[in-house]
Design a protein that fits this description.
By secondary structure, the protein is an all-alpha fold. It is built from six helices and no strands.
Length: about 210
């Protein structure tokens, strides 16, 4: 009698082994999706419907470059920047915009500080007991005559551009020269016929 041989059932493929747990201190290995499948996108911040918590900057602990002081406007801008949500390109553009605005503010503050320094120098000179007081305008006229005779327009520009002509000690120095050579100077009160500016305006052209 023939005996039929039974075909054993096909074995099911074994399930893939679970990845080994990373050792302590190691980063977990990235999960590779099955062939033909796209990796699942990483969840974005705030995708769960809740807005990310606002960042509050503690400016008492923020380290800023030496000599820089942050105004309230600067702090507001930096806080907005820290809380800005967007692509890396959008965040970069935002940082450049904030940096440009901060740079303009610093330049404006520096210019205002320099103008105040020069104004304070002139005020100090006017109050000086040697070169100021009631004789101040006449002393400036003598200095103006020294520059007119021994200097030129370029020298006046140097005094104006650098602020040196506003400093009390420069005024004192030039006044001493004017006194020493006084006999060779024009008569006090002479001004060019076509010059309608005052002596103080000629000496301090940037002063208002």
């Amino acid at each position: 009698m023939d005996t039929e041989l039974e075909t054993p059932p096909a074995e099911e493929p074994a399930a893939p082994a679970a990845p080994a747990a990373p050792a302590a201190g190691e980063e977990p290995a990235p999960v590779t999706p099955p062939e033909g499948e796209e990796p699942a996108p990483a969840p974005k911040e705030g995708e769960d419907g809740e807005a990310p918590a606002a960042v509050e900057l503690d400016f008492e602990t923020v380290v800023v470059p030496d000599g820089m002081e942050l105004s309230d406007d600067n702090k507001t801008t930096l806080t907005e920047l820290a809380n800005f949500q967007g692509t890396p390109e959008e965040r970069t553009a935002k940082m450049l915009e904030a940096s440009s605005a901060l740079q303009e503010k610093i330049q404006a503050d520096n210019l205002a500080g320099w103008d105040k320094t020069r104004t304070d120098w002139v005020s100090t000179a006017k109050a000086d007991t040697e070169i100021g007081g009631e004789a101040f305008d006449n002393n400036l006229l003598q200095i103006d005559q020294v520059i007119e005779k021994y200097g030129n327009a370029e020298l006046r520009e140097v005094f104006d551009a650098t602020g040196a002509g506003d400093h009390p000690e420069m005024i004192r120095f030039l006044h001493k020269i004017a006194v020493d050579i006084g006999e060779s100077l024009p008569v006090v009160g002479e001004t060019p016929a076509n010059d309608t500016s005052t002596t103080e305006q000629r000496m301090f052209p940037t002063m208002k």
